[in-house]
Design a protein that fits this description.
single chain, 349 residues, Rossmann fold, three-stranded mixed β-sheet, 12 strands, globular
Length: 349
């Protein structure tokens, strides 16, 4: 039995599918509020619960030989800021400790690329990047930073704990609309024409899931593995989306001070009035000041992981938007998702 916490999420759903294809028996622990439509419920054991509850976690890990810990709050804003620590740090501690107490063969902890940036850095970021607390931006990143430190410390002490740091996953199937998916969807829906001068590292979500399996099989405890692929600017992503949709290319670059001020206003409105996710977050804007160029070559080589082109991933994402009915009545004509890999048509060349 293999446990996947957060198995109904964007990466988790793809990981569950891959594990089932390999003939594994899979148990998923996730919140009662998450959409389950993409999970093959007839083929998995499902436990609905919260990783903040130790008893639920103990029940979930019982009888498992491996645990993939993905469950987290992936957003950069939440109304109760303290919940980041409760879920992303203490929840991770609950899962890792319970798994080790249950005698599992190995635990994989999912960290993030956003904690690997340093102020003023000009060179590329590799898996051995060293960061200190003062480098970490915002409550989300801080919660993930402490969780990663806990997992790495156990691994270096001899516990069977491995760590992966995915960069930004893209691809079809993101019902929860993670930040990169929401950004692309906003552009495709005509809600966003402006951009911030910033870089991203993108990788297909299906390749992240495959990479996790490789790390579980051959990763070295106490080391992080960087699951990333292509460095692209936000402008380049939007230009590709414009080619795919026929929308105008973005032409208004928002200066950093303006973007930061707008983020503070957006968060204030969300905190006080709407109680819904803001259009821009302070953490997200502040991260755009960091150089987000990654070199994952060492991890990819050791894991023998060969990610697909990000152009393909984004093209299939847009096609999936159309299939979901998120792009309006013209979507079936523009995005023939069921007819095969539209990325091969050369539309983004």
């Amino acid at each position: 039995m293999i446990l996947v916490t957060g198995g109904a999420g964007f990466i988790g759903n793809h990981l569950v599918q891959l594990l089932l294809e390999r003939g594994e028996t899979v148990r998923v622990l996730d919140l009662p509020t998450v959409p389950l439509s993409q999970l093959p419920l007839h083929r998995i054991e499902l436990i609905l619960g919260d990783i903040r509850d130790k008893q639920t976690v103990r029940r979930a890990v019982h009888g498992c030989r491996e645990v993939y810990h993905l469950a987290a709050n992936p957003n950069l804003w939440t109304q109760q800021r303290g919940s980041f620590r409760q879920v992303n740090y203490l929840g991770a501690v609950h899962v890792i400790d319970a798994a080790l107490e249950a005698g599992v063969r190995r635990v994989l902890h999912t960290s993030t690329e956003s904690i690997l940036t340093r102020a003023g850095q000009s060179d590329v970021i590799r898996e051995e990047q060293q960061v200190v607390y003062e480098d970490i931006i915002g409550p989300y990143c801080r919660s993930k930073y402490f969780a990663e430190r806990y997992a790495l410390r156990l691994g270096r002490a001899g516990a069977p704990v491995v760590v992966v740091n995915p960069t930004l996953p893209v691809g079809p199937g993101d019902l929860g609309r993670s930040p990169p998916t929401q950004m692309m969807l906003d552009f495709c829906q005509g809600k966003r024409r402006e951009y911030v001068d910033a870089d991203l590292n993108l990788i297909d979500v299906r390749d992240v899931a495959e990479g996790m399996i490789h790390v579980m099989e051959r990763g070295q405890p106490g080391r992080r593995y960087l699951l990333g692929y292509e460095n692209m600017s936000i402008f380049s992503v939007f230009r590709l989306l414009a080619q795919l949709t026929g929308l105008p290319e973005p032409r208004w670059r928002v200066p950093y001070p303006v973007a930061l001020a707008a983020a503070y206003v957006s968060e204030f409105i969300a905190d006080v009035f709407t109680h819904r996710a803001p259009a821009a977050t302070v953490t997200g804007v502040r991260l755009t000041r960091r150089r987000m160029h990654f070199d994952p070559s060492r991890s990819l080589t050791e894991l023998e992981l060969h990610p697909r082109p990000v152009v393909q991933s984004i093209t299939e994402t847009v096609a999936w938007f159309g299939k979901m009915g998120w792009l309006g009545p013209s979507a079936p004509r523009l995005f023939p998702y069921s007819r095969g890999p539209v990325w091969q048509s050369g539309i983004a060349s």
